[in-house]
Design brief:
The chain is of the alpha/beta class. It has two domains: 40 residues, no CATH class; 87 residues, 2-Layer Sandwich (Nucleotidyltransferase, domain 5). It is 32% helix and 23% strand. The chain is built from three helices and seven strands; from the N terminus they run E-E-H-E-E-E-H-E-H-E. The strands form two sheets. Strands 5-4-3-6-7 form a five-stranded mixed β-sheet, covered by helices on one side. A two-stranded antiparallel ribbon has the order 1-2. Strand 6, helix 3 and strand 7 form a beta-alpha-beta unit. Helix 2 packs parallel to helix 3.
Length: 158
């Protein structure tokens, strides 16, 4: 609390101001400000704004399909061989007596690259039971076929 001592004699009074409660209040206010600043950013995210999810009016144009570069490409490395999924098309490549048929995989991926020349990305998945070498060799084959941007995903069970 503030305290004023008047000792008389014409001297100025001695004033002591306790700043501890003010510092406590400011630290609480700053903490509250920092916490609420994060929540105001989260509230700015607009949900449900997808152009495909809204009902279209009769006068409204239907959005064009994505360009060919946006068609998803996935290479699945399985115990039985490879499965290539490009868009809704699926291709199977079985194993040979020597093991996985990487030259055939490269041939098929190069054919896909010729069909979709703007496509540079792809996803590769490998079953958990297979060796890490299969993932690396599959990635190298995709890179040599012209797909430089590769993502690794968990294997899809089918």
């Amino acid at each position: 609390m503030a305290q004023v001592e008047d000792k008389g004699g014409g001297r100025s009074p001695n004033i002591e101001l306790n700043l501890v409660p003010i510092i406590d209040l400011m630290s609480v206010l700053i903490t509250f400000l920092l916490i609420t600043a994060v929540w105001t950013q989260v509230s700015m995210i607009q949900l449900g704004s997808s152009i495909y999810g809204r009902k279209t009016e009769q006068n409204q144009e239907i959005p064009p399909p994505p360009p060919q570069a946006d068609i998803p490409l996935r290479v699945d490395v399985k115990e039985t061989g490879f499965r290539i999924v490009i868009g809704s098309e699926t291709q199977q490549i079985g194993k040979t007596a020597e093991g996985y048929n990487y030259p055939e995989l490269m041939t098929r991926l190069k054919a896909i690259k010729e069909k979709y020349p703007d496509k540079n990305d792809g996803v590769i998945t490998v079953d958990e039971s297979l060796a890490y070498e299969n993932l690396i060799t599959g990635m190298d084959t995709m890179i040599q076929s012209g797909f430089a941007t590769i993502s690794v995903s968990t294997a899809e069970m089918e």
